[in-house]
Specification:
alpha+beta; NADH Oxidase; 2 domains; five-stranded antiparallel β-sheet; globular; binds flavin mononucleotide
Length: 189
């Protein structure tokens, strides 16, 4: 009997492995990685539209959708953003950058979580389209928030959370291996 159960378990494991291998969504999530160097090739407008649509498909608390997007393709503006954000040098050489902002008047309590979900959707959409992207943080560093608000004439109630530079990857970055079963706790810690 135990041999039969072992066989069934083994069979299910093989099936789930094959299923995961063929699942384009799972594979896209597993393949996503931060890409910080890009070729000079422009990202097509229809791809930018698709990426933003994916961003706007994010879940949000009470479905308030407190997000706003600022799409930057102007070279000078991209350079100015990189000057304000010390760890966002990739923005300088990207074809386009999307700034994800939250409207605190729409959702004071949950805009950070909602706009973080948007940012991850943007990264996943870029990956799926063969593009490279990286999440560059703005909020909660006050100086960075104020610097970006000043540069782009953003109203006070609109807080820039992240900027995602996007371009065609120059190199061949690989995803980091992060799966760690020791972090999984079943039913209790
Ligand atoms: C909230 C947040 C802020 C980040 N800020 C920056 C940043 O300013 N500059 C940068 O190059 N990467 C930034 N990253 C990207 C991380 O460095 C990257 O996700 C991490 O090293 C894991 O690598 P991976 O994205 O390839 O899996 C940020 C990521 C998150 C989630």
């Amino acid at each position: 009997m135990s041999k039969i159960i072992s066989f069934i378990c083994f069979f299910m494991l093989i099936c789930s492995t094959i299923y995961a291998d063929n699942n384009v969504v799972i594979n896209n999530i597993l393949n996503r990685k931060s890409v910080r160097k890009y070729t000079a090739q422009k990202v097509e407008q229809d791809k930018i539209d698709t990426i933003i649509k994916a961003g706007m498909s994010a879940p949000s608390a009470m479905n308030k959708q407190p997000w706003e997007f600022i799409v930057i393709s102007d070279k000078k503006k991209l350079e100015d953003i990189a000057k304000i954000l010390p760890y966002a040098l990739p923005v300088k050489n990207a074809s386009v950058a999307i700034i994800v902002c939250g409207n605190v008047d729409v959702s004071e309590s949950y805009w950070v979580q909602d706009c973080s979900a948007v940012t991850e959707n943007i990264l996943l959409a870029a990956e799926s389209l063969g593009l490279g992207a990286v999440w560059c943080g703005i909020y909660p560093q006050d100086e960075r928030v104020k610097g970006i608000q000043r540069l782009l004439i953003i109203p006070k109630n609109i807080i820039p959370l992240s900027v995602v530079p996007i371009g065609y990857p120059l190199g061949n970055e690989m995803p980091k291996q992060k799966y760690n079963p020791s972090k999984i706790h079943n039913n209790k810690w």
